[in-house]
Design a protein that fits this description.
By secondary structure, this protein is of the alpha+beta class. It contains 18 helices and 9 strands. It starts with a helix and ends in a 14-residue tail after the last helix. The structure holds protoporphyrin IX containing FE. One of its GO terms (molecular function) is oxidoreductase activity, acting on paired donors, with incorporation or reduction of molecular oxygen.
Length: about 425
């Protein structure tokens, strides 16, 4: 028996060394049993740089294999032709699907979790909400107010006292206040010198963290935790309940406010997105959807998606943008020069949105920052039927597709040899 065990062990060692020697030049190795997961875990701390390198090696498309006991298999893409095929040319064959909705459960039936008719309906609704003139002036008022009375005094205070702060935290507080005000008409006042602990913001953070957790652990683990109501899933349930109570409270007070304003034939003081949504919904043929309960759930999902979509994207985008500008003094000088030319009137800043939209160089610098550090570095979808990508890769039905916006922003064939440099000029033709 011992002799057999020795022979098997020697054979396995031989196979392991042979496999390692054969594949060691590859940026990612498909190990027996464990698939490509070890490579990903080893590089977890710089996963975006690593996957960019791997995708480059495989020409922008890789069939990722996970451990045999999980269903961690997906096609990973940064090839623009393949991404265009999925998101545009053959979009009807790709959807978010039930697995996506399960992971993003707190988003309910909001647009981020929707496909087909529901997606189209909500997209139309959001477009008409944000294009509403009253919302545009509310947006201008809120954004300017938060910068002048919140952000600038805090940054001034930090700079005069020389206190070291985490700029990302300041921007998170700033965007949470901004986005809650714009969506719900309620300012949670997270942005203040005392850095208060605001329960709504904490609950929202917890929900984001738990959704992220569902992305990184095998499905069976988080589902078991959800069933047993332990660990991260228990924290999610508590935060979710708390945040929902807050949202439903905002919705019912908003409904009362709108009825009161209409009865008194007054103009809304705050034309937030919730107001815009309730008004549009009431104006639609047939009035409310099918009773106020369903309608409240619809408004809850809409509000949650807009807060979720607008919060961390903007704060992450602002943080990277500021970091890039401060580490590139020539870009900073050009932005300041352009601002002086267009916005400075009698030594006062004119915040008019029409004047701000003339800042071409600033716009280019923001695009360049989003290219290098996209706040949503990758996205995923599922195929419905089989398909063939422009690169020739076959796609089976119900296949998970992950596309990397981070890697695409750093592809030499798109952006040129200097793709790694922060050069706003590349956006100005
Ligand atoms: C730097 C800021 C932002 C970035 C980088 C960003 C990025 C993205 C990306 C990559 C998507 C996915 C698109 C797709 O699936 O095709 C998306 C979807 C979406 N974003 Fe943003 N976003 C930003 C800010 C915002 C803001 C401020 C809002 C609104 C409050 C918002 C609302 C949405 C909505 C509603 C969707 C779903 C659209 C759909 O499925 O058609 N985003 N965003």
């Amino acid at each position: 028996m011992l002799w057999y065990a020795e022979v098997i062990a020697a054979f396995l060692c031989f196979l392991f060394i042979w496999h390692w020697r054969w594949t060691k030049h590859l940026p990612i190795i498909n190990w027996p049993l464990f698939g490509m997961l070890p490579g990903l875990l080893k590089n977890a701390l710089h996963v975006h740089e690593y996957t960019t390198r791997v995708l480059k090696h495989y020409g922008g498309t890789l069939e990722f294999k996970g451990p045999w006991f999980t269903d961690m298999e997906f096609v990973f893409i940064s090839d623009p032709a393949n991404i265009h095929h999925i998101l545009s040319r053959n979009y009807s064959n790709y959807h978010k699907g039930p697995k996506f909705r399960e992971v993003f459960e707190p988003y309910g039936d909001g647009i981020i979790n929707s496909d087909f008719d529901s997606w189209r309906y909500q997209r139309r609704l959001i477009q008409s909400m944000v294009k509403n003139n009253k919302f545009e002036s509310f947006l201008e008022k809120v954004s300017r107010g938060k910068v002048e009375s919140g952000l600038i005094p805090i940054l001034d205070h930090m700079s005069s006292t020389g206190i070291e702060v985490d700029l990302q935290e300041i921007f998170q507080r700033y965007t949470f206040d901004n986005v809650c005000f714009l969506v719900l008409g309620f300012d949670p006042k997270c942005l203040s010198i005392e850095f208060p602990q605001v329960a709504h913001a904490k609950a929202f953070d917890q929900m984001g963290q738990s959704v992220f957790y569902r992305h990184v652990v095998p499905e069976i683990c988080w589902k078991l935790q959800r069933w047993l109501q332990i660990g991260e899933e228990k924290k999610l349930r508590i935060a979710w309940k708390f945040f929902d109570e807050f949202l439903y409270q905002c919705i019912s007070s908003k409904r009362e406010e709108i009825t009161r304003i209409k009865a008194q034939k007054m103009e809304e003081a705050n034309f937030d997105l919730l107001t815009a949504c309730i008004e549009l919904e009431q104006d639609e043929e047939g009035g409310e959807m099918d009773g106020s309960t369903k309608s409240n759930k619809f408004l809850r999902d809409m509000a949650f998606v807009l807060i979720g979509a607008g919060r961390d994207t903007i704060s992450s985008g602002l943080t990277w943008f500021l970091w890039l500008v401060t580490t590139h003094p020539s870009v900073e000088a050009k932005i300041l020069q352009e601002m002086r030319e267009h916005l400075l009137v009698n030594n006062e800043i004119n915040w008019d949105i029409k004047e701000i939209s003339k800042l071409v160089y600033l716009h280019a610098a923001i695009c360049e920052s989003l290219r290098l550090f996209p706040p949503i570095p990758f996205e995923h979808l599922y195929s419905i039927d089989s398909d063939i990508l422009p690169s020739g890769h076959p796609i089976g039905p119900r296949t998970k597709i992950l596309y990397s916006l981070y890697a695409m922003g750093r592809t030499e064939s798109i952006w040129g040899e200097d793709f790694i440099e922060f050069k706003p000029e590349r956006w100005i033709s």
